[in-house]
Amino acid sequence: MVVINEEDNREKSLNFLEEIIEDSLAHGEKRVQTRFPPEPNGYLHIGHAKSICLNFGLAKKYGGQCNLRFDDTNPVKEDTEYVDSIKEDIQWLGFQWANEFYASDYFDQLYLWAVELIRKGKAYVDDQTQEQIRLNRGTVNQPGVESPWRNRTVEENLDLFERMKNGEFPDGSKVLRAKIDMSHPNMLFRDPIMYRIIHADHHRTGNRWCIYPMYDYAHGQCDSIERITHSICTLEFDVHRPLYDWFIQELGIYPSHQYEFARLNLTHTVMSKRKLLQLVQNEIVSGWDDPRMPTICALRRKGYTPASIRAFADKVGVAKRDNVIDLSLLEFCVREDLNKTAQRRMAVVRPLKVVITNYPEGKTEYFEAVNNPEDESAGKRSVPFSREIYIESTDFMETPPPKYYRLAPGAEVRLRYSYLICCEEVIKDSDGNVTELRCTYDPMSGNGSSSDGRRVKGVIHWVSVKDAKEAEVRFYSNLFLKEDPNDVEDGKTFLDYLNPESKVVSKVFVEPSLAESSIGDKFQFERVGYFCVDPDTTPEKIVFNRTVELKDSWAKKSK
Q1: DSSP 3-state assignment of 264?
Q2: Chain mean pLDDT for the chain
Q3: Which single residue of 8, 71, 512, 532 has CA 20 to 30 Å from 439?
Q4: What 3-state DSSP class applies to 197?
């Protein structure tokens, strides 16, 4: 099935979820209601961003609504810190929920429905330990063993369940299980746990409850209460769908339906909350917002834009099979967006001093520089120029190969926005390292041409020594060397594949205008990469994070 995009009259295929929604609307469904249901036990990552874009995007496309519902059914792991961060991330991505709900809003109703299932003989209180339940569940090829408490009377189960709610039993001593089929081929149907006892303060309900519903029991019923028409989950929940339907059918409530799509996996990245938490707790990273993390707050700190993440989610698309997306696609998306929006500045990362011997001492002049060639409205700025400048040490070679168009002895290059200079002398230290260049300039070349009309192919960036501001730059690369750090060899863990050079800190010299930049501001350091002002910045020191590097044409040729 295809639709015509009215804006450009090009055909665009519908993804399978859009096909499902359009089919349901064609067969009598009057509305589209989705939801994004995170558990507030950690920070959202790029995989959640895809789900956010999908749920909110589908609701918007079909004139519906998307709820934000926190699956807060485990007080031991959940906190308002995570609730606040999740809301901030969703809004930063450019979305706003229609209603804000919590699974805890429905605890009373969920309890009453559990009582109803007990009365119907569809649930019972089990005294087995978690380990006994696990062992008695059986295997794919072997049926499970029924609990010795499976055939308790309805009256006994009602009494025990109420006493569980009243706090008469310790953690782990009893659970409420659905009574289905201990030999069912889908092992989730082998009397799944509905409630467990947890004596802990809940971030919203305090100590009112000491029994908490399991995900498989609560999720479908929460969807039903909110009359969700399309409950969209990642693919690992497809085996849970029959149980989702079973509870709704047994209770005779609004029939929400679950649909699954492939989760997002990125190369050189782990997405597991457990593994991400391990990185934080082991202080391998500085926190959840460390720019090497795949969390949304980390991507924001690194300099990614909401538009770039939305574009990435769109390019990845919606699939029915799990796949691994190359990290370079995400980098492509942010590079494309920043190219249009980021202002340009000059910064020298590996400084090599250049003295322009025929330039007047003590003189400073200013050249106009374009802030963004992709956006004329961004205007221009003034860049100071003086007798002594810094250039990148990589922009000079004493013995250059053919087709090398940067600075070399006797060679001429253009300084960006400024003059042509020619290298006349190379100064070295006692170890033979180049420490300084002596150059001359053509005073008639400051307008983009030269006095005799000659042109050069090489253009390099620079900063004036006496005007430059010193800054700190943090260069980030993949946290893991292995493309799939989840694919571990015998005797190893994902931590064995950490990249020891995933963060490199360097001192740089930047244009003086950058001293006025604010936290979060984004720039392209010309010929270097895209950078963002980090929250660690102080009045005494500017700190930049590299968001993504630029493509280096010479580096490609020299490989």
Answers
A1: strand
A2: 94
A3: 512
A4: strand
- Average pLDDT of the segment spanning 309-317: 96
Active-site hit among 35, 69, 204, 263: 263
Reported in sequence order, the residue ranges of 208-255 that DSSP labels E, i.e. its strands, are 211-213, 231-234
Q: How many CB atoms lie within 10 A of CB 204?
A: 18
What is the chain's length? Answer: 559
Residue 418: per-residue pLDDT: 95
Q: Which of 528, 523, 516, 552 is nearest to 338 (CA)?
A: 523
**Phi and psi angles of residue 437, each rounded to the nearest 5 degrees, phi first:** -120, 140
| Of 446, 437, 386, nearest in space to 416 by CA | 446
pTM above 0.85, yes or no: yes
Digit-coded pLDDT (tens) for 85-113: 999 999 999 999 999 999 999 999 999 99
Q: Is 263 a catalytic residue?
A: yes
With beta carbons less than 8 A apart as the criterion, state whether 343 and 379 touch: no
What is the per-residue pLDDT for 7? Answer: 41
CA atoms of 115 and 161, how far apart (whole Å): 8
**How remote is the C-alpha of 493 from its chain's centroid?**
23
Q: Which residues touch 132 (CB under 8 Å, ≥6 apart)?
A: none
pLDDT of residue 149: 98
Strand pairing class (365-370; 380-385): antiparallel
Q: Using the predicted structure, report yes or no on whether residue 558 has a pLDDT greater than 60.
A: no
Q: Per the residue annotation, which of 87, 122, 273, 416 is the catalytic one?
A: 273
Determine the Cα–Cα distance for residues 47 and 50; give it in Å rounded to an integer: 5
Nearby residues of 190 by Cβ (< 8 Å), 6 or more positions away: 137, 138, 144, 180, 181, 182, 183, 184
